[in-house]
Amino acid sequence: MVGLSIYLILYSVLHSVLADDVLMKRYYYKWWYRFFYVLISSVLLIPAWIIYVKLPKIYFFNPPVYVKAFLYLIDLLALAFGYYASKSYDNSSFLGIKQVKNFIKYGIRDVKPEEKFVKNGALKFVRHPYYFTAIILLWFRPMYYKDLVVSVIFTIYLVVGAINEERKLIRKFGEEYIKYKKDVSMLIPFIKRSKY
């Protein structure tokens, strides 16, 4: 468990550093950077998966079948919400595909920061719908002890990541985003007046 914990913490730190536009300002808005970020983030999860699979399966939480069914129903609803949330984003840009295509097709080397503030769809209910979905999927399930380690570390990472992302969004959108923060919760839908 210690090896998995250390790897996931290092992964989370590296992932945060690479996602920070101030720390990575020299590269952050280059045409290749977002695609590289998504690719490296995915590839670096492979060792974590290998470590995870080799750990013993000892239950931390193994509820009765009817509770499992209820948890899986919540997970399905969370996935549906995540899918609904995806309609509010430019996923091609999010994955870096659009930037690579624009470079190949038009030779565009630098990517302009997002200038349009979007708050439609799932963003009317929660400021970080993908993070909310991920947290539900991390916690609403039967769990081995190794799952508990993953859930704790990634939940902390998601909360810290959301706070850091908020700083970026305030820099980009200023007062408009500050007002939005007052009206829409950061991580739990339908709860207004988040303190973050």
Keywords:
196 residues; 3% strand; mainly alpha
Task: Briefly summarize what is shown.
This protein has 196 residues and is mostly helical. The protein has 10 helices and 2 strands; from the N terminus they run H-H-H-H-E-H-H-H-H-E-H-H. The protein has helices spanning 2-19, 25-28, 33-43, 45-54, 65-86, 91-94, 97-106, 129-139, 145-173, 175-183, and strands at 59-61, 143-144.
Radius of gyration: 18 Å
Helix content: 55-70%
Sheet with the most strands? 2 strands, antiparallel
Q: Averaging pLDDT over every residue, what do you get?
A: 93
How many β-strand runs?
A: 2
Which structural category fits the helices and strands?
mainly alpha
Q: How widely separated are the two ends?
A: 32 Å
Coarse shape: globular
Count every helix, treating DSSP H or I runs of 4 or more residues as helices: 10
SSE sequence, one letter per element: HHHHEHHHHEHH
The oligomerization state is single chain
Instruction: Indicate the proportion of strand residues.
Output: under 5%
Give the uncertain stretches in residue-range form: none
Give the spatial strand order of the biggest sheet: 1-2
